[in-house]
Structure formats: structure tokens, C-alpha cells
Specification:
The chain is of the alpha/beta class. The chain contains 15 helices and ten strands. The protein has a domain of 135 residues. The chain binds guanosine-5'-triphosphate and magnesium ion. Guanosine-5'-triphosphate binds next to helix 1.
């Protein structure tokens, strides 16, 4: 998982390219194991991930993949030279990063979601400025549904302009049918009239304070019903899939967080904290910790306890997220001498979020990586990077910012610069791109 533009689609495309055409000298797995790709499998729940389309666009258009607008799954079967009696099956998901904000709906009723959204808007300084008109409107003597919808839409659009990630319902940016409104919103004009806070124009909802919920029970009732439909259609399928995963890869674009300023960092971290709380990595169904599971399943007397245990049907279906990889993406946008720092910043940002879970669940493996799925620069002397231009022309040279040792106490938008570059990828489809540490991430996940 990762926010919009964090690099999910590029990550998956490059990973699939390497798995389908594995070369141990370029993609190290285990102790030099060879992976043999057997076949692509039918996705279980979502549409098929358009791998070839993304791979071709990288080469022929020399352009990065288009923004993802739907939920896509890629599944395959493979063999490994260091496994003699088994084969592996891998299933991975790609989705629009904007949908991450809706995952907060998963365990919440409309009232609870309202309280959570309003507490983020009130208590987190990075939302104060865009949220003030909406919060003031809720405190006024009389409000109408239209006024609230209008003000909340404007608040979400301001958050989008200021790169704040908690924009929910995300349908305001990507409709349930997959129409991306971001570009039109940037142009201004009438675009906002075509964007809805819900499944469609007649099914909208916005968070209501406890006081408004009491004062306007009709409004609360309508919004609750619209919220439930939205949650069911948009948030639940994604969350259910994620909760059934063995491993979670959290992509964090540290270069963009540095370039975007401290508000962007804080917003991202808060959202990540909420999502980790929701997915409860290291816990099985019903929130049992792995320690409890192990105790119940202990071979000395565990079986007796298991048969007596009320939850045994659930335990037999037990699945949980037992690995998390926190991955700083686009590591090729920083000079090679700075890449360890990129990994350390990712660690500093996420350790406080995951530490409690690691402590409670003895079998939660956490890894930290600085990775580029399609490494598109070459580091040169004098802290310079060479970026790919066109075949036959000289590579362009530029100097990116230095990555700091620690997250600064305060920093502003534009203080750090890590320019975007074009993808540098072999034209031959079965030749996978250069990468940085993508194999380490894969090895961690597929071990
Ligand atoms: N230099 C470099 N840039 C990358 C890499 N991966 C992603 N990018 C840049 O990041 C942008 C976004 O990458 P995507 O993979 O489309 O991001 P996403 O997380 O799928 O975004 P959404 O579909 O909006 O959720 C790309 O258009 C590139 O500009 C990488 O490995 N190296
Ligand atoms: Mg994408």
C-alpha cells in the first residue's frame, strides 16, 4: 500500500518483469536461488493487473504508467531452485492511493467515522487552514445539507491542493467508476459540480458533529445510509483483501515528503498510523495475537485446549499479516551516497507506529528498505545524478538535494528538490530494468 504517486504501479510492474524473467545475477533471491515462473493465474477478486500495458508504455512512450483508477490484482505461480517439494503462489494488489483514506471507514459506523474525521481536522495543525470554514459552518445556528456538502467539498479540494492525504470520501477525486477528477479540479471552473462526496450525486455524505447529528436526525439518517453503501462498495473489498494478506509492503516516497514540507509528512504519518491500527498486523482474526494463537496451538496440550476453545473455527481459518516491509521508493532520485539515509528516515518515521505491534506479536517481521523499482539515474562525482534523456543523446546531469540525517525539526515546501526523471528501461520486454534493492524486498517477502 502507498499513497497516490508513491510508486505502487511501477513497483509491481518491475517486480513482475523480474519474476517472469528471473536472472539471479541481477535479482538475488535467497542464496542465489533461481526462480522459475510457471504461469499467470486468474485474479481471485479484482480485475487483472495490466502488466504488459504498463511495461510497454515505459518503453514505447518512455513514460511512467498512468495513474491507477481501479483496483487490480496480479497472481502467478512459480518454482524455486532452493525449494524441492513445493511451489509458490503470489497474489498482489494495485489500487489508487487516494482510496487509502477511505480505509478508515472499515471498522466505523457513520457516527464514529464523523468523529474520527473531525478530530483529524480539529487536532492536526496541517488541516487547520483548509478545515476552518467547514468547522465554523457546523457551529452556526442553522445549516442546510447543501451548504455542508458544498463546504466539505471545498475543504477536500483544498487538502488535495496542499497535498494533505486524508481526503475521504475519495470519490471526490476518483469516482467509483474510475474517473479521475484531479486534473479538472486543478483547472478550476465548474469541475467541482461534477465531483461527489459519495457514490453519486444523490448518495452523498459528509462528517457531522455529535451536536448536528442530534439536531438534524433526518440528515444523519440519510448520510448514514449513503455512508454504509459507500463503505460497502469502496472500502470493504480493499480492506478484506488486505487483511487476508501474508505480507504488507508500505511504500513511502520520502523524496516527495521532504520536497512537500512538514505538513505533508505529518499527514502521511497520521494516515499510516490509522491504517496500521486498522489492519492489526501480527494479529489473526478477532484480534488474537500470534502469541495467543501459538499458546492455543502448542503441541503439548495445545490440541486439547484448541478443541475446547470457542474460536477454533476461526483459528483454523487463521491468516494474518506476519511481515511488513517499509520501503522508501524512488531511491534513484537521491545520490547513492544518500540512500542509507533514505532508509533511516523511513525507519524513524515508522518505528513509533509499528513498535507496539512488534512487541505484542512475536512473529511480526519488519523490514526497512530504500528501493528504486526502475532505477533511472546514475550517480556521478560531486553529488551529481545523470538522468536518462533520449537514445543517442548525452545524459542530463543535475544535483539533487542532500538527504538529511534526521527529519528536520521544521521545513517548508520547496526546501528540498529531487526532480522527476524519465524511466530508463531496456526495450526488450524480457529484460527487466535496473533496480535498487527491489530484490531485497522480494526476498524478504517471499522467504
Ligand atoms: N525515478 C523513479 N521514479 C519513479 C519510480 N517509481 C515511480 N516513480 C515516479 O513516481 C510516479 C508515480 O508512480 P506510480 O507507480 O504511478 O505511483 P502509484 O503509487 O501507482 O500512484 P497512484 O496510481 O496514483 O496511486 C511515476 O510517474 C514516476 O514519476 C522509480 O523507481 N524511479
Ligand atoms: Mg498506480
Amino acid at each position: 500500500m502507498g499513497l497516490y504517486r508513491s510508486g505502487k504501479t511501477v513497483f509491481l510492474t518491475s517486480l513482475i518483469n523480474h519474476l517472469q524473467n528471473h536472472r539471479p545475477d541481477r535479482f538475488l533471491l535467497g542464496k542465489n536461488a533461481r526462480l522459475v515462473f510457471a504461469e499467470e493465474l486468474q485474479p481471485s477478486l479484482f480485475e487483472r493487473f495490466p502488466y504488459s500495458q504498463h511495461r510497454d508504455r515505459l518503453v514505447t512512450g518512455e513514460a511512467w504508467p498512468e495513474k491507477t483508477r481501479g483496483v487490480y490484482e496480479y497472481a502467478c505461480r512459480y518454482y524455486r531452485s532452493d525449494w524441492h517439494f513445493s511451489r509458490g503462489e503470489l497474489s498482489m494488489l494495485d489500487f489508487p492511493g487516494e482510496r487509502m483514506a477511505d480505509l478508515m471507514m472499515v471498522n466505523a459506523t457513520f457516527d464514529q467515522w464523523s468523529d474520527l474525521m473531525l478530530s483529524i481536522l480539529r487536532d492536526h495543525s496541517e488541516y487547520h487552514e483548509p478545515a476552518t470554514p467547514y468547522l465554523k459552518l457546523m457551529d452556526s445556528a442553522a445549516v442546510t445539507e447543501t451548504d455542508l456538502l458544498d463546504a466539505y467539498k471545498r475543504l477536500l479540494v483544498q487538502c488535495f491542493f496542499q497535498y494533505r492525504p486524508v481526503i475521504s470520501p475519495s470519490a471526490i477525486l476518483i469516482s467509483p467508476a474510475g474517473d479521475w477528477h484531479g486534473e479538472a479540479l486543478k483547472q478550476g471552473g465548474q469541475a467541482l459540480n461534477q465531483c461527489f462526496c459519495g457514490l453519486d450525486a444523490d448518495s452523498q455524505f459528509v462528517p457531522l458533529s455529535a451536536e448536528l447529528r442530534e439536531r438534524y436526525p433526518g440528515m444523519r439518517h440519510r448520510f448514514s445510509a449513503n455512508y454504509r453503501n459507500y463503505r460497502h462498495k469502496i472500502a470493504l473489498p480493499l480492506a478484506t483483501w488486505m487483511r487476508g494478506c501474508d505480507a504488507l509492503v508500505v511504500l513511502i516516497d520520502v523524496t516527495t515528503l521532504l520536497a512537500g514540507g512538514e505538513g505533508m509528512y505529518q499527514g502521511n504519518r497520521e494516515l499510516l498510523r490509522n491504517l496500521i491500527d486498522l489492519l492489526k498486523p501480527g494479529h489473526g482474526y478477532f484480534g488474537l495475537t500470534i502469541n495467543t494463537m501459538r499458546d492455543i496451538l502448542d503441541p503439548l496440550g495445545g490440541l486439547t485446549r484448541l478443541t475446547r476453545h470457542k474460536l477454533w473455527p476461526a483459528i483454523l481459518r487463521w491468516k494474518n499479516i506476519s511481515k511488513i516491509a517499509f520501503v522508501a521508493t524512488k531511491a534513484d532520485k537521491v545520490h547513492e551516497s544518500d540512500r542509507d539515509r533514505l532508509r533511516e528516515l523511513t525507519r524513524d518515521m515508522t518505528v513509533p507506529i509499528i513498535a507496539k505491534r512488534e512487541f505484542q506479536a512475536a512473529q511480526l517481521d519488519v523490514g526497512y528498505f530504500a528501493c528504486a523499482a526502475v532505477s533511472s539515474t546514475r550517480s556521478a562525482s560531486g553529488h551529481q545524478l545523470q538522468a536518462y534523456r533520449e537514445p543517442g543523446t548525452d545524459a542530463e546531469c543535475y544535483t539533487p538535494s542532500h538527504v538529511p540525517d534526521n527529519w528536520p525539526q521544521t521545513w517548508s515546501h520547496g526546501q528540498f528538490r529531487f526532480p522527476n526523471v524519465r524511466p530508463w528501461i531496456p526495450r526488450l520486454r524480457d529484460s527487466a530494468p535496473d533496480h535498487i534493492e527491489l530484490d531485497r524486498v522480494a526476498d524478504f517477502l517471499m522467504r
